[in-house]
Write the C-alpha cells for this entry.
Amino acid sequence: MSEAIVRFGILGCAEIARKVSRAITLAPNSTIYAVASRSLEKASNFAAQNSFPPQTKIYGTYDALLEDPDVDAVYLPLPTSLHIRWAVAAACKGKHILLEKPVAMNVAEFDEIVKACSENGVQLMDGTMWMHHPRTAKMKEFLLDKAIFGDLKSMHTCFTFGADADFLANDIRVKPHLDGLGSLGDAGWYCIRSILWLADFELPETVTALPGPVLNDAGVILSCGASLRWKDGKVATFHCSFLSHLTMDITAIGSKGTLHVHDFIIPFQEEEASFSIASEAWFDEFVTRWTGKRSEHVVKAELPQEACMVKEFSSLVNAIRTKGSKPEMKWPTISRKTQLVLDSVKQSIEQGFVGVGVLQ
C-alpha cells in the first residue's frame, strides 16, 4: 500500500529551492502544493521557471502560505538569519519543516526552533542531503567493521569551491545580516557533519580554529579551518573555503583501515557514487609499492540523494499524520550537535584561536 502524499509549501525562492523542488517532485510520497515569496510576481515566475504543477498555489507573502490548511510541510531555504522567525512561525501553524543548513545563526536560536517544533508536534530535519544517499549507509558498514577498519583514530575533511567575483561581492553568503556565518556555515557545516558522522555523533572535547582565516571587509568568513579533539584521543581537522578549487573530500583513518571519498557532498554522478577503502596496507620488501587489501565500491542510487532525503522526511511526516507517531528526534539532535561545533569554531576564531570546550 502506497504512502499518503505530503503536500509541500516552499517558503522562498532561493537557488537551492530549484534543486529541492525537483526532489519533491521525484520523491514518491510528496508533491509541490504551494510556493511563496515576498512578491506574488516572484513566486509566480519561480513556479513557471521550474515547471511546478499547474495547480500550485502561489502566495505573495510567507504568512499567507503558512495560513493554508492544506500545506502539510514547508521547505525553508531562506537566509540563515531568517530561520528562527519563519521556522518558529511554521511550527506554530503545525507545518512540518525541512530546514536548509546551517539551521541557525547559533545554537540558542536553533533551540528556539526545536522548542516550537516539539510543542507543536511537527517533524524537523535539516537539508544535509548526502546523509540520505545509500552510499552513506554502505560506508558506515565499513567503518563499523572492527576486523577491517579497527578503531577510528583520525578524520580529515574538506569542502571548498572557487567563488567568482560576483558571488564574493553580492551573494547572501557573504552578507553579515543574511548568512553571516559565511563559508563556515555554508561549507564548514558539511565538514563538521561528516566528522560527527564518522565519530558516531560523539561531540569532541575541544575545538581549536586554525590561524589564518580569510574574512571579507564586512567580517564574514571566506575561508577557515579547525582541529577537533576527543577525550579518547581521536582527532580531526577540516578546511572550508569560497576561495579554492572545488573539493569535497573525506579521509577517515582507523587502526586497521582507511576510507577515502572524493565527492561526499555531491556525487560525481547522480545515478551512482563510490568510495575506496584500504585495509592492512603496508609496503613491499623494497618499499616500492603498497601491499594489502584495497578496493573501490560503487553504490547505485534509484533516486537522487536529495529525493531520498525528501522521501525519508515525508515518511516521518506520514507516520505522525496517519499513525500518531511522535516526531523523530534523531534529526534535530544531529543538527544541534553540528551547530554546537560550528559555534565553537566561530568562538575560537573570535578569541584568537584558543581551544574552546564544546558545550552539550
